[in-house]
Amino acid sequence: MVAALHLAVLAGPRDLHAEPIPEYELKAAYLYNFMNYTTWPELPNLLRLCVLGPDNFGGALEKLSARTVQGKPIRIASLNSPAQARGCQLLFVTEREAGNMDTIERLLGDAPTLVVTDTPTTPAAAIQLALQNGRLVFDVDLARLRRSGLMVSAKVLSLARSTRN
Amino acid sequence: MRTYLRAAWHLAIGVAVALTASAASAQPDLLDIPMEGLVASDVQSAARVAKQLSESNAAVSIVTAEDIRTFGYRTLGEVLNSMRGLYTTSDRRYQFPGGRAYGVPGDFAGRIRLLIDGYATQDNLSGQLYLDESGLIDIDLIDRVEYIPGPGGVNYGQGAFFGVINVITKNGRDFNGLRLSGEAGSYNTFRKRATFGKQFDNGADLLLSYSRLNSVGQDFDFPYFAATTGNGRAAGMDGEHNERIFLKFQYQNFSLEAGHVQRTKQSPLPRDELGFGKPYQTDDTQDFVQLNYDYALGSSLRGSTRAFAGQYLDHAYRGYNEYAATLQGLAGAPPGAVAAMRNRGKGAWTGIDQQLVYTGIAGHTLTLGAEYRRDPNIDFYNQSLTSSGRRSDYDFPIASLDSSTWGLRFADELRLGEHWTANVGARYDRPQLGVCQFIRPGTPAPVPFVLPRSKTTSHCIDYPYQPQWSPRAGLVWQADARTTLKASWAEANRMPTPLELPFDQAYVRPERVETRELVLIRDFGSLWRFTGSVYDYHVSDAQYIDDRGYRHYDGKINPYGAEVQLDTSWGRWSLRGSVAWRQSDVPDKALANSPRWLGKFNLGMPLWNEWLRGGLEAQFLDSRYGQFARSGVVPADETAQNALRGMAGPVIADNRKLPPVTLVNFTVSSVKAWHGVSGALSVKNLLDRRWDAVAPTAYASASSGSSAPDLMFDRVPMDGRSIWLQLHYDLGF
Known about the structure:
In chain A, 28% of the residues lie in helices and 28% in strands. Chain A is of the alpha/beta class. Residues 1-17 of chain A have low confidence and may be disordered. Chain B folds into 2 domains: 2-39, no CATH class; 61-323 and 345-380 and 396-732, TonB-dependent receptor, beta-barrel domain (Maltoporin, Chain A, Beta Barrel). Chain B has a 22-stranded antiparallel barrel. Chain B has a 5-stranded mixed β-sheet with strand order 2-7-8-5-6. In chain B, a hairpin with a 2-residue loop joins strand 14 and strand 15. The longest helix of chain B has 18 residues, at 2-19. The model of chain B is unreliable at 11-26, 440-458, 630-654 and 703-710 (pLDDT under 50). Chains A and B meet through helix 1, strand 1, helix 2, helix 3 and helix 4 of A and helix 1, helix 2 and strand 1 of B. Strand 1 of chain A pairs parallel with strand 1 of chain B.
């Protein structure tokens, strides 16, 4: 049925959507949406989206810096050390740094930072991205969100593959 | 629900595209697409180079679930074969690992540790890994496999002598429903599997899987046995059957795992030269359960408590009884009274492991761990059977071992400024081992050969093992975000497995290894990674069997080598290539089955849009020495000793070489499910290369002597071209 819809509408022009979206462009869009649908205890004048460790985003994150979230501009920061993670509204931990999650968690404590990772078997992230059957899915740890004093809208939660308390 | 979202989304995009047909080359900005649209989009998985999760100073090899799918791996052994510097050898009963400094076929070893989510799987009779269909884990349940070369006892426990295989399993949420799988392949092989996985609303995650395998196998012709016995055909003697159950349940900080596998495999090769053509089948059963609890004790102290129990049963059956002659000589059994032999080997174990990680001191991550393991009953017992399958009146004594080990470990990771990290650690083991012998009542006469010769009056002995230290140290220089240099040194000990114990010596020294390794990891952009490593190992007090069949415990081996690997990916292509050069110096001899060069090549490619993916794999295995061929005639008491040890494979040999071989495999797999259906089609050994593995036991025809190479048996035929089809049907709920 999906295919039929496609054919009906798209006779002629190239079906853009049939081209899958590159993973990290999609991940960047997810991060943007997570920021849009998260409520921080206090909204600073500038929202910091931090990436810890060498990443695979390429230029995908740069597009975000031209955007605003909840009326505030986004600042993209590349971190070299977990010690710089305080003060980030969203912290994306890359695979290389995922092994240091203990340290990151200790340094962050209850700070209102939304920790996102795409590395499997990493504890302590509030949102974990994963690829499944050609889709980008995510799991949400509600307990960690609560501890950081963050609220993520029900709309995002309803799209999660799983949520856990 | 998702389907409708997706349909609606396609419709929306379609309309948008139709309206802006002239601007069709411009992608809509993803940031303008609502989240519902994003989650329904197909993703082109990024070119990526997987990064290690295991804690190690070494250059870790990684195979992910995606690699397993792309290259159609069916067993853990096939996964290892794709890794840099590793190879496996099969004798059509079991598959044995080969790597730096190890790889003798039939050497059950216990020199590599195989962990499934932290649980050490080796049995306590022979310390075997079970990399084939006899292993505990179904390949479809594996999320990733990491191989960590070098001693890993401080992080991964006793037994990690030459390396650690770390298997991380999937979670229930990775399946999110019921998956029914079927596999059909060459040699009349069929597998069925049902897997249920789900994460519930309260966060509990359940994974439950059951599978069955049946294979008829192949017929073989052995020229050696044709020449020596007049009929070298082994027909219908390669069959295999297995059954597996796996359970994983996680709730909050608890996790429970349990597994069961029972496998029978017929062996076309006899265990003894004179048993060719008689039924011989291995029968292995393994069970385990593990409970894990992770917790935080304050902000800078984390704990993890793990309790485990497992058991192993060996019920191998041999229609030919190589001990009959011995029994006749020693126990007075009349000829023909003993027709067959059934192993009744049994091993059980329980243990507890406690680990604490303290991060309260700036710049330090301190780890303290303690493990207690008890192996209360390790029984070696061969039941002799009459020609009607009943237990005969003549029996062998039971050798029963009782062992327990205390282990303590300590490690510290120090951050020495921005670019430098050092780590030090040590493990202390305090083993205890006692061996007893029991004679079944009614057995005509006690057979003395399993008792220590010096202590024939006693039925039990204690091995006075000394406590052992295994230290390590490493230095990591993170020169910049993309360059890492690691230097490491380590020492490790290894107790002989019960199968290797000399029952005529009250003391053997453990094997020791000292290793040095230098590793360079360099990323070029995010898409290229170079890994290089050089190493030098010194193994002392290695055990080996000399060319007369006697076991020694004072061998010296000096393995050294270099390995390079390149990982890259672009678009939907991925490439991994590696070359390993290895050398193992042994005084006056060459190490058997130790290829000098190993090459691996893995190319993943798009075949048809986002639907099909191809995986092309090539593996080069250099020439390797076979084992020293033994004449068929050995003194009776020596045969009996071999029987108790189980294996008669010499470790050090200087015999003829098997030629190098390049194997090519090709797999086409579906990238995403079509109405819940996904699958893969693999052709293994695409070029149909006829090749052999080094045999675990070698024979030379007594009539011709080993000078006639055509009449020497030292190799086992491996599979030619074979085809495998896997289909999965996912029912989400």
